[in-house]
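> Could you send the Trehalose 6-phosphate synthase/phosphatase prediction when you get a chance?

Sure thing. Input:
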Amino acid sequence: MGRLIIVSNRLPMSLDVSDDGSYSLRQNVGGLATAIGPYHKTHKDSVWVGWSGVDPGQYSDEEIDLIREQYESRRCVPIFLSKEEVDGYYAGFSNDTMWPLLHDFAHEANFDPETWRVYQEVNEHFLETLVPLLRKGDKVWIQDYHLMLLPQMLRERFPEASIGWFLHVPFPSPEIFRSLPWSREILEGILGADLVGFHTVDYAKNFEGSVELLLDKHSDDEGRFTMPDGHEAAVDAFPIGIDYNLYRRTSRSNLARMMRRGIEEAAGKRPHSRYLSSLTAESNAAAEASAKEGNWWSHYAHEELPELHLAKSAAEGSPKPNKVIVSVDRLDYTKGIPERLRAYQRMLEKYPEWAGHVTYYLLATPSRENVDTYKRLKEQVDQLVGQINGKYSLLAWSPIHYITRSLPIKPVCGIYAAGDVALVTPLRDGMNLVAKEYLACHDGRDGSLVLSDMCGAAAELSEAFIVNPYDTEAVCEALHDALETSSEESAKRNIAMQARLKSRTAATWCAGFVSALEQVADVSSSDKRL
Ligand code: ADQ
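Output:
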């Protein structure tokens, strides 16, 4: 059995430089690091190759050697990219061309020959790092849209290599994909692999359709393309899972419990904190006192400032139980955050009885801030949150708690656990791990998932409240229904989904892809090794 060489844009660890100038490595969070990280840790001969995130222009040669040693001690091989390379390959072609195109946002895609040139160069840079590393019998598993040319580049150098490539995001329809001026080169690049993997059968079909349309090649009954050099490329679906027990366990940690408790208090699900009750008591007392005294503003206070009444009714118990809605995203236009906010606003407008009784915890951490589209999105979300809070806030209640900091896993699990409803409504998403993590944090409990039908997870989580994220009215209604669902009903829906998530984990996904790669590489050539 050969080693597994994992190749991804970023390594699973980032460099920390402490005040005394010493270096250490910090484990990255996120889907890829969590899914493949445990395999890398337990398979002592596996090697992970990727960009270090370190700008070599900022360090001396000796310092770069020390950084390299740190990584190598964890079986990671760092690639150092200059600022120009990062701008062209990562911020440019990967994030500003391929990301929008693959998510059906062709109108946002920037087709720039200069970033395409740098993208090709950086894929070659990865190739040159891999060449001296590879040994006979190794399997190479390349990740994602940053490295779509690498499989064929590697195939040309090592015709007998076993190469897998997996896409973590959707693959669009052939009609959208063909708008890319370099679509043929990209398809040929990917088809250098023995095994091409996607999250869903639909994405795999879109890829096959694009190959047929643009390369005039047809797959056999088993979904294999025979390439001019004789090697076969198989195409299949491998839906990624989560480390279910990790999320379940973490949601029960002390920090997550504290977070959940804090949110429940702030949302009025538990006895109000001192601040909130004193505010409520003070406002009601002031209104009553002034009414007794016949002050001119007492009428105004009672009749026209509904917050005073609501504060009172919340304190005394009201017809609506208090509820919490949660969402956790990178601030990305594919995640549908403005659309979701409009649906929430619509619900507050259509069902005013929720005012004062439902609080939306919106965790949306800015990402890719050097790309203009992302800057504009941040402004749009800031504005919408301000507008909704401004319009609907009462004296002691705001409809949205907006958090833009990046939080570690424990507080994130606390947020999930506090959510009576999770609102997961991407406009397009390869899989979406957040929906799965939310359900793991509600193991053995109620909690309702409102889920977009535009993400890979919808195929597996059919018991959720499935919605079209573009349909404001439908999301508003699903949200209302989810908030109204009985504990028994939501627990029943969850059990079926949780059972699936428990059996299809990140570890089984990883092992499944690696074993499929071994099989297809064997079939493709009975003695196919470096
Ligand atoms: P992402 O687009 O990053 O991943 P997602 O699948 O939701 O999207 O995974 C995000 C991960 O980061 C989750 O583990 C989540 O807990 C965490 N996260 C997100 N926002 C956070 C925040 N604000 N603070 C802290 N943690 C946060 C890509 C594809 C997905 C695919 C994965 C895995 O876009 O479709 O599911 O890869 O293949």
